[in-house]
Amino acid sequence: MRSPLAVFRAWLKARRSRPTWGDTLADGNAAADGNGFQAGLELASQGIIALDADGTIVALNSQAQALMHSTGADLSGMEFWEAVPDRVADNHRSVAEQAVQSGFAHVFVAHDPFQDQWVEYSFTPHACGAVVNLRDVSDTHQALQLLHGSELCNRSLFEGNTQAMWLLDADSRHVLALNKAAAAFYGLPGDTAAMPKVEAFFPEGEALRWLASLPAGDFQQQMRVCTQRKMNGELVLVELACSTVLWFERPAALVSVVDVGARHFADIQLQRRNDTLEQRIAQCSTDLQRSREELDTFTHAMSDFLKAPLHVVSGFATVLAERYSSALDEQGRHYLARIRVSTRQLAKLIDDLRTLAHLPGLAFKPEPVDLAPLCHRLVEEWRKREPQRHLVLEIPQTLPVFGDRDLLVTAVDCLMDNAWKFTAKKEQGWIKVALIPGATPEHSVLSVADNGAGFDAAYADKLFTAFQRLHSSADFPGGGLGLAIVKRVAERHGGRVWATTADNGGASFFVALPQAPVAPLPDQVGSNR
To answer: Is residue 524 part of a domain?
Structure first.
């Protein structure tokens, strides 16, 4: 089957000698050709209207009638501009007629608001008049409107953005546009008509190096720190970020400009301060190490120098008590007993001070430890020293914990000694040692409770402070360092300590210890009651 255009051309060739469309269609001998011409028009996918030299419609197909919204009326013989809506004729008639008379094709698009339809009218001049092609372009027009609206939105966002931005053509690498913020940043006039070259934004030679560093086509996530030159010659350090965009259907790179000069200066200042701080920290570490060494030396010297005469005093007091107690009256024997008690207390204080000072430097070797045998041994030693004491000791068969054996032995010694001391005035004292679940499965808690003198709960925060005592040394002798040592041992294990008391007396002390090996933490000063 031949196309409608081929039929139309054949019909024109056959009737080329006839002066007008009307003569051609009116000729009875050409009826067959006319019917073939109309059939060809009906096969067309768009509307076709044939006009004579006067602009009268001599032929049209049903598609044209539908687009002219006159399917129920015969438009043949009507003047074309009278068949179309008045607004179409008023807006396009003069220009279309002038173009056809001059032998030029003419195209325009008209909108039908009632049908919300856009129709394209395409005029092609011919020797017998003109051919008008009609095509529904509503979908295309709506797509163009959406595209135009998107482009306007993009331009609005681009122009109104407070971030300095400019557009670089992806092919020519020329500046396509820059927003107001960029114009203000570079010192360009706000009404700049001609776009500056990209070289204007860089110091001499750097623009080519920057362009060469950009990949061809894809600019996504391309960021560079470089120097920019303002129009007054000022150089600034900036961060340029590029991303690929379409700018009015042209591939382009959107370049955002961030002044990082202040940040770079701040980074330099921060680095200098960090270097200074590192030097100070190193110096402080050296001074701290030297101070610890001096403290260790002083502690050793003081303990040796103090213990030597203390042993002498204690020895002579023992000799006096053994050999000459019968020669002394009651008051003299009391004084002698006070001397012996004071020397023992001072010796214990020296030992505690030495232990407290040495804890930070002791090696930390965690291992499984059973504390039950230690507790039994301590109590047996104290019972030998004070056989008149009546004390009930409650200890499970095993007290399995995990930590440094030497440190834990020291802490348990302090806790048990504390409980033994504060139950001294009880006719029937008791000490209970147990392991209870911790706040998390990774911790266990060692508990040492007694029914001794207890403490005032208002001063519980002072219990583990060195040399802090909540009871008179005359009532309960001690140096005030035992619980400080316990706290320091707990912290070396990554744990913590706390205590509770009851209204009717007694106290409970708790030490939370990790169940798994942990690195030792920096030592901190503890406290005691």
So the answer is: no
